Amino acid sequence: MSVAAGVCATAAAVRTGERSAVEIVREALMRIAVRDGAINAFTTITEERALTAAAMVDAQRAAGRDPGPLAGVPFAVKNLYDIANIATVAGSHIDLDRAPASRDAALVRRLAEHGAVLVGALNMDEYAYGFSTENSHYGATRNPHDPARIAGGSSGGSAAAVAASLVPLTLGSDTNGSIRVPAALCGVFGLRPTFGRLSRAGMRLFAASLDVGGPFARSVEDLAIAYDALQGADPDDPACALCPPEPVMPILRQGFGGIRVAVATGYFSSQGAPDAFAAVERVATALGASQRIELPAAGLARAAAMIVTSVEGAELHLADLIAHAAEFDPMTRARFLAGALVPGAWYAHAQRLRRWYCQELAKLFRDVDVVLAPATPYPAFPIGQVSIELSGQQLPAAGHLGVFTQPLSFAGLPTLAAPVVQAGSLPLGVQIVAAPWREDLVFRVAAAAEELGVLVSSSPIAG
Amino acid sequence: MAEPFDPALYVPQAAAALGLPLAPEDLGDVISAFAVLARVAGPVMAFPLPEELIAAGVFVPNEGTRG
Asked: Using omega within 30 degrees of 0 as the cis cutoff, is the peptide bond preceding A154 cis?
């Protein structure tokens, strides 16, 4: 059974006529059929649509037209993205009888317009409220590096499908870490762009003031070419900024000369296992980054993010919580119900604190351009594990996974989660972070670190 | 001096105010989940903010609604 070639390699093969899109998509569908049973990444396969779309890509090329920079690249999306003619369940059972989507989500359309071919939808925590993809309705998604362990979440299916080489490209969403956590635990690259950079039209949101969509892939270049295809203003998403695309492919190989890289310390160098910090140090050493910087009030930012998330998420699902709470996943139900009861002043204060925090971070980015921080406090834990001991303290195993991601997304910062080379152990990731709208810096540093050999998406140990 | 907060008293009453039924089998977990939120909200609420600081969630009127 073949593994999926990367995004750029696949598109190049189709564009030159070396391979047909139909052949590539058939292979992807076969890989999913044979191997996904052990991973449980996919919840829907769009075979008929995929083969039709692939045939159109081949026909375009045969007619002498440009089939696009992502020609024939099979991709799949977290099942909160609208797919035409399919009910968007967002990991829930409640919405199985929801009306099918009338058209694809904006980001799905953008990838398809660039020649990529949608092959299915992917598992997630119910309504994106979780970090582990232990979904009681659809089963847990398993980590391709060790199927007894979680894939991370909430975009667990998106990370696992890429890590298991079922497809080279997926989309997820990130409210508090839901792209970065599973990317790190599955050993793949994942991008949380600046809040407002990409359109969320046609995505089912979780906490609207925090949510962003973003890609997963197995190399920085593959992530970059997908990110470039996803960019562009969209009046259908009121949070999507009215700024023109700023492609990163042209600047990817400029190196990181002149970019001031620092390691986040203080909050970001405690509350985790030693391996998580050692991974960050390996990247810093490779880049020659000796500067240390402490982000102000990161713990407070995480706390405020939890308040904002709980309120926005609960309000979105309040009608269902009132009418049939029992149909919610037991993994999310109590947290959704509790969020509905938060006093208004807590929420408003948390959103005002967010403004202060963003202003403080803006000062920090006068002295530094890129910050390195651990992606998760520890590697993937066994499915079903409820708590974890850290420095003699019992912590919620899944909840604590977001300790290093939440303070960064609360400020809307662009962050690339990248797998750090780990010999013979479970994957761990680093977050590469920049000031808002500076994805260019994030990508240049990531590409340089990848070239230096310290970031790599390793093949799974198991499966 | 405010009385110590008891989520076991607050949760059923706040749910009633919202018209949100809580199943007896969920009540304990909801109280625990709310207690977590109350714990993290403590330092957030204790952090003083100047009045002129505007909330981060800013409303942007739709394009095309002018004239």
From this structure: yes
